[in-house]
Amino acid sequence: MHPNEFQLERDVQIRAQVRTDRLQLLFRQTFFSVTGSFLGALMLSWLCWQRVDPVVVILWLSVLGAATLLRIVLLLGYFRSCADTRTPERWERKYWLTLVLTAAVWGAGALALMCSGDLLTRTLVLLFAVGMSVSAVSCYSAFRAMTIASIGLVLLPCTFWLLVQPDATQIGMAVASLVFASFVISATRKLSEAMETAFRLTREMEYAHKLATHAAQTDELTGLKNRRAFFHEAALIYERCKRNHQPLAVLMLDIDHFKRINDSFGHQAGDQALREIGRVIRESTREVDICGRLGGEEFAILLTDASLDIARQTAERLRQAVTQVSCEQVGGITASLGVAAMGADDRSLTALLNEADKAMFRAKSQGRNQTATA
Questions:
Q1: Which one of 183, 288, 293, 346 has the largest count of C-beta atoms within 10 Å of its C-beta?
Q2: What is the pTM assigned to this prediction?
Q3: Residue 257 and residue 252: Cα distance in Å, rounded?
Q4: Is the pLDDT of residue 153 over 90?
Q5: Lowest mean pLDDT among 3-12, 185-194, 337-346
Q6: Which of 322, 332, 333, 193 lies closest to 256 in space, CA to CA?
Q7: C-alpha distances in Å from residue 128, one per residue of 101, 113, 149, 353
Q8: In sequence order, what are the beta bridge partners of 336?
């Protein structure tokens, strides 16, 4: 892959991960926004109960309660879903719909209370609307557009209504509210950018760590695990299979006449042969198998949940695939393989590998390009 294409693919992956991280944060903060919104409406209704029409209050709380219940259902659905289905494509639009509905109901109800009340009532309603705007900043901080939409739907209906009133006090309240909203909207931009930067840096560090770990465990020529990584993972698999009485087999592979390839055609030809063998091994084994280059031209493959017969068939398939490899200058390549399976008396991974290694040397001594079984 070209470096620019690799960089582009990495950036696309990180952007998708950042978007998912923002969505997860949004849903974790949703409980407080849902409960805070309805509790704020209850408190405001209690304070204004004797100053406004009770029918308006009851109607507002009923509609707001239904919208709140809808948001709770969405919240439960998100956290009960599988982790791999919690994607922005599936949940962002639904969240937007419930947010807009709840904020619109809150703003409409506040306007209804303000229109039917006196100056004290209007002051209380505006204070609560401003408070809801502040809570929106903390609840939707990862999504600036949601914050602005919430502030606008809750605060602006009351503010614009106050602006058209003949009383200078009410106009002043509206202007102060607009000034406050402008400062809040400006702050949301900086906060949203800072959070996105933090998410991106976190993901980039994780990505860099993953690359460094992979590089430390991978043989750069073949793409297989290096000796240290192979023995580390193989030991874990060996202990697990032995503990659970699961079948386990190992293959040892050695390229025939590899020294002759290096001496006759140079180390570049030898490196090409190693790369081709690594490709063949990856294509001939399963993802659950542990494949590694132990050094030079020697490779090992740990076959999980595989009997001796299955291991022998895999080794033969691999040997035949190697004969199909053709390298420039070198031409055809062959390999000798040894197969061993874990028995009840095996005490260690090293002992199992030694058995396969002995079988491989027997294959070489019998003419090479064949498979021998321990």
A1: 293
A2: 0.65
A3: 16
A4: yes
A5: 3-12
A6: 333
A7: 18, 12, 17, 73
A8: 254
Mention every residue, 6+ apart, whose C-beta is less than 8 A from residue 222.
274, 275, 277, 278, 279, 281, 293, 299
Residue ranges of domains in the chain, CATH in brackets: 3-210 (no CATH), 227-373 (3.30.70.270)
Q: What amino acid occupies position 311?
A: A
The confidence band for 344, taking pLDDT boundaries of 50, 70 and 90, is low
- The residue with tokens 């980039």 is 204
Closest CA to 142 of 237, 26, 54, 247: 26
For 294-348, give the DSSP string. Answer: EETTEEEEEEET--HHHHHHHHHHHHHHHHT-EETTTEE--EEEEEEE--TT---
Q: What's 118's DSSP letter?
A: -
Active site residues: 297
- For tokens 């200078």, the residue is 168
Burial of 85 (0-12, 13-18, 19+ CB in 10 A): exposed
Question: In which band, very low, low, confident or very high, does the pLDDT at 265 lie, cut at 50, 70 and 90?
Answer: confident
Range 323-329 contact pairs with CB under 8 angstroms and sequence separation of 24 or more? 323/369, 325/273, 325/276, 325/277, 325/280, 327/269, 327/272, 327/273, 327/276, 328/269, 328/272, 329/265, 329/269
pLDDT band at 226 (very low <50, low <70, confident <90, very high): very high
